[in-house]
Design brief:
Alpha-glucuronidase (chains A, B), 5-stranded mixed sheet, xylan alpha-1,2-glucuronosidase activity (chains A, B), 15 strands, homodimer, GH (chains A, B), Chitobiase, domain 2, globular, alpha/beta, 3 domains
């Protein structure tokens, strides 16, 4: 099916025949770490430890600098350096900590492999804690996982014992994380299972922690708030109840006894049916602080999620702010409020959550989603760094111009005892870890942005492509022009393309229910929570479409700081890409493009489809530069994505046309699916 | 979902609001006969009869000429006129027969409604017999029917009695046929059921014949060759056996007793498992002549099908010629050999069957397929007249230049006792008769071409569109420019588009097995007749693709007359549209376009997809000019067609690419389906 063999009739064929022997099949398992070193190196280091041993080994196996060079690894206290920071020179890495040395080694090797300049530099991470959240269930399934089952947990019938295979995989996992600066992993789903805190499971957590430790990766656990009553034999889990307090203290002690560097707890409480302090008429602060007190002696932290919304009539986008702002200042200093990037739920585009920058007396950490729950699972090629960059660079104005989300969370604006950032993992047992070869770039990008929240998406893509696809012997200018450039362009456009063909102009939450994959703007069965149905969010009717969150609507705009609040409140100044997030907009509203809203919507969806088709062409053209395995895998996925994009376009345009009653502009390619069929098929899948 | 109401924001909307009240929903049941007359007329006719009464009624109800005019209907013998012919003037129709008068009336009314010139003209039909073949089974199903069940037959459990509803429907059917000149109907499937010749079924045939008679439509039956042994109690059906001969004579007598104008028999013998004279070591001539002798006294004819091919290794395309040519001159004069237009089986494009013009001492009639077995069923908009026009105008050279198929079959070249043409009907119980509103145009076009085989597709489309879609009050220039012109263009392109996205460049028989709808170039299970599998026909391998029928191959070219044989035999002079029919062609063979075969194939498939997308645009644009019912029905079908075209393109390009090993040119839109999935889905449907 692929065309890169025996192409004997073209010049391209001749080129291919020269290149082909250099390309070998790649299953994607070695990620961005597939390159071997090219020369010997002397490593000088006065100390020894498991972590330093790894640092030395990586240098020796990955060295691509001058052959026979000497590299000094120096551990000494330097106030210019944070815990994981390091000073980098061509032949020297200096750090306060062993993990700092290891990060320095990965930085040095990466620069060698990508051809980046290595000059004297002091490099510190943006966040103290850079954490993957695994939504892995103890039975081995993964909520919103699209790359196979859990690497940590197995079906209940299986033993919890740690195997050699486990250790190998966890080592590879830890190394990949360390290589991009990730230093923490929450091992289980935020929809937590109470049995995770029982001895047999904790024993396995210890096994995992032992493997992850040398790579500087701490383990954390999601815990069920009602654990005391569910597994502790107590009658309550009231956070102010002395027995409950004692239970948690004892549990924490038990954990630290076997995992001395345990990171802490992640808690989803009073959210989507999870138990929490409000069940006992206590506040989120009461609950979080109780746990924080238990963890404090060991240096552990509580990451308390702000993703809460009740069944009230209040605009769902407003509720987290409404619940948490009154508690600002009431949390212990080892509590961090973990806030999803947007106020609803990881949609292709959301404005930043208004809690960022607003909670001035509380540590706040961003949570982004690496797994593509709403962005085409592991079928669509969507490079997420541009979304995260857009988010991190959003100005909250909370402490004046330049109070970006990044600066409001990394300690630049507010003094925080702890800083952190979390990404919901896209990792599973699939050979290539992430299902889609390009989904690896999102794991990579999360780590890189967590390390340095000022990096550009372009720079990260550049690194990742070079590390992941560049082969020895590839002539540089040729490869740069014909592979690196077009593939990078594709990656950088891919998130906007997904927005275009899924939810342009601020549309959100109009996906198919449950699986959150295809379109489902129509879905609104009786007896379903309204704020789980697309019509709640798009509010299409004969007069227009969009959620009125202006001052005359739900007034969500007022949760933002001026001048942003006013900008968003005015339909004429609200950015077009968030228009329908904040405004129920007439179908004939004229946008700055000169088009009506309806026409603009048509062009956006159509542009999305065209962009994916262009990605297909881009990918097909680079065939001579990539091994057949990855070429074909990605080609096949792009075909599916292209077809899906068309389905999204057809479904949304035909659905909304019922309200707009306006024709799809005649220069746009027509739908090829009928709305009735799409709805029927969607319903069949449920 | 449709957009032609309440379009309050555009100028188009205003136009629509003016037009809309004039458009009323149309279910398609009244076909091209939906227009009522506009003025009174005096009809003068000295005679009376059921047929003449119909002629008068049609004139009175359909008159759109000068109000109060007088029209004379004159029956008198005129040697310039054939049986159904007539002389037309603005106010007079003269004919030898009553049916001639009726045809003249329909011609006059049609010209009034379409605005065609009415001047003094003598008009004779090209063929004496213009016959629909209904592949209807006695249980009411229809082989290759895509418009519901049979209008003639019902499930076996139902009574055979004729109801008022039957009569109404048959009357409408007869009238539609008469209005386009069709004067015969074979009421049952060529894969005949012996019980059709039993008394209860013949009684129903009589009921049908009684309704069809006044409209000049004769009834015929497909008969099973083994009827004498199957229902006659005889031990054999050997055509030379006296008892068998007597049985058929008696049966024919029985039929004519109740249906005095019965037309005759259609026979599929020794073909695809049907019994025939060869079962008794007799020839096709022996079989046909035996029946012809029985029918002769009553003026009946035998239409004996040449669609035969054995399981031998002989090229299937050659076999009909091989079997029938040696019998030329051996058939009775009331036998007509019914030959499918192409030598294989109603493919989107075939060369004409070499039997046309070659059988110089035998009457030969063309059989074309109106039902779209291989052309997208009643889902695809494919106007077939261009295919038939191409076929009828093909030069056989059998009696010198200009010996077109049309002239070789209509009596212009050879003296034939009888001339005829058959079309396999696309009619069923669907409200709009044909499933697809545009499929009506194929019924219409068949009738018109059977009447006048020199008509152009363009002229027929012009008539049909005006009769079928034009509404009173439509401003002429506006309607002509914005509806007639684009819709006609779409129709005229539609068959070539289907060829492009299904089987371009002479590819044939690569459809999905059984249902003959989607693509299935891969289908070749073990233990299946090779000449039923696509690989038998496309013969793709690493060196090229196509069936070598040149002199060094199967030598099918030699069945054609010079200079055609030599032209087809030479890969450099064989027309590109038949290249792979006649030549196994190297993938890198350069065509006159300058492209390699592989590239040309890619562009053809892609062009087909683009053409259908253009049809969608065309149709969407004409929305203001058509009622919402038909607009939406056709819009929905075009969407499906567009998606199907993409599937065809993807399936065929990805399948053949396995052999060509060449890339799809990079300016072509990429496949969005994966070959494995397409094959899997295809197999699932079987």
């Amino acid at each position: 099916m692929t065309a890169n063999k025996n192409m004997k009739y073209s010049v391209l064929g001749l080129i291919l025949m020269c290149i082909s022997p250099l390309l070998h099949a790649e299953d994607g398992h070695s990620l961005w770490l597939r390159n071997k070193g090219k020369g010997s190196v002397n490593v000088v280091c006065s100390k020894n430890s498991p972590t330093l041993a790894l640092a030395k080994q990586e240098l020796r196996e990955g060295w691509s600098g001058n052959a026979g060079a000497t590299v000094n690894l120096i551990l000494k206290t330097d106030k210019a350096l944070k815990a994981d920071g390091f000073k980098l020179k061509e032949n020297q890495i200096q750090a306060n900590t062993e993990s700092g040395i290891l990060y320095g080694v990965y930085e040095l090797l990466r620069r060698q492999q990508t051809g980046e300049v290595i000059k004297e530099e002091t490099i510190n991470p943006s966040y103290e804690r850079r954490i993957l959240n695994h939504w892995d269930n103890p039975n081995g399934t993964i909520e919103r996982g699209y790359a196979g089952r859990s690497i940590f947990w197995r079906p209940s019938k299986d033993s919890l014992g740690v195997t050699e295979k486990d250790k190998t995989l966890w080592t590879e996992y830890a190394r990949a994380n360390a290589s991009v600066g990730i230093n923490g992993a929450v091992l289980d789903n935020v929809n937590a299972d109470q049995k995770m805190l029982t001895a047999p499971y904790l024993e396995r957590v210890k096994g995992i922690a032992d493997i992850l430790r040398p790579y500087g990766v701490k383990t954390y656990l999601s815990v069920k708030f009602s654990s005391p009553s569910m597994i502790g034999g107590l009658k309550t889990s009231d956070p102010l109840n002395p027995e409950v307090i004692k239970w948690w203290k004892d549990k924490v002690k038990e954990i630290y006894k076997i995992i001395p560097d345990f990171g802490g707890f992640l808690v989803k409480a009073n959210s989507e049916g999870q138990p929490g302090p409000q069940d006992y008429k206590r506040t989120h602060a009461d609950g979080a602080n109780m746990m924080a007190d238990a963890l404090k002696p060991y240096g552990g932290i509580v990451m308390w999620r702000a993703f809460v919304y009740s069944t009230s009539d209040e605009d769902r986008a407003k509720q987290a702010y409404g619940e948490f702002m009154p508690l600002d200042g009431q949390f212990r200093d080892n509590v961090i409020i973990q806030v999803k990037n947007g106020p609803v739920d990881f949609q292709p585009r959301e404005p930043f959550s208004p809690l960022f920058g607003a909670m001035k007396k509380t540590s706040v950490m961003p949570e982004v989603q690496i797994t593509q729950e709403y962005l085409g699972h592991s079928t669509h090629l969507v490079y997420l760094a541009p979304m995260w960059e857009e988010f991190l660079k959003s100005d909250t104005y909370q402490a004046g111009v330049g109070s970006t989300v990044a600066r409001c969370t990394d300690g630049s604006v507010y003094s925080q005892k702890h800083t952190a950032i979390a990404g919901v993992s896209n990792i599973g047992l699939d050979t290539n870890w992430c299902g889609h070869d390009f989904a690896q770039s999102n794991w990579y990008a999360f780590g890189r942005l967590a390390w340095d929240n000022k990096l550009t998406s372009e720079q990260i893509a550049d690194e990742w492509i070079k590390l992941t696809f560049r082969n020895e012997g590839a002539e540089s200018a040729d490869w740069n022009n014909n592979f690196l450039k077009p593939v990078k362009e594709m990656m950088l456009l891919s998130r906007e393309a997904a927005v275009n063909y899924m939810m342009p102009l601020g549309l959100h939450h109009i996906m198919s229910a449950n699986e959150h994959y295809g379109p489902g703007p129509w879905w609104a069965p009786a007896r379903t929570r309204k704020d789980w149905t697309p019509p709640y969010f798009h509010k299409a009717d004969l007069t227009g479409v969009g959620f009125d969150r202006s001052k005359t609507g739900s007034n969500a705009v007022s949760q933002y700081h001026e001048p942003l609040a006013s900008q968003l409140n005015d339909i004429n100044t609200c950015p077009a890409e968030l228009l329908l997030w904040f405004h129920h907009t007439p179908w004939n509203f004229k946008l700055k493009t000169g088009r009506t809203l309806w026409d603009e919507m048509c062009y956006k969806y159509d542009t999305g489809v065209k962009q994916v088709r262009q990605f297909q062409k881009t990918w097909d053209k680079i065939e001579p530069y990539v091994d057949a395995d990855r070429f074909t895998r990605i080609q096949n996925k792009l075909r599916a994505q292209s077809q899906n994009a068309q389905v999204w376009k057809d479904a949304c345009l035909l659905y909304f046309q019922q309200f707009s009653k306006m024709p799809i502009p005649y220069d746009i390619e027509r739908p090829v699916n009928n709305l009735d069929d799409l709805i029927k098929n969607d319903m069949k899948r449920r």
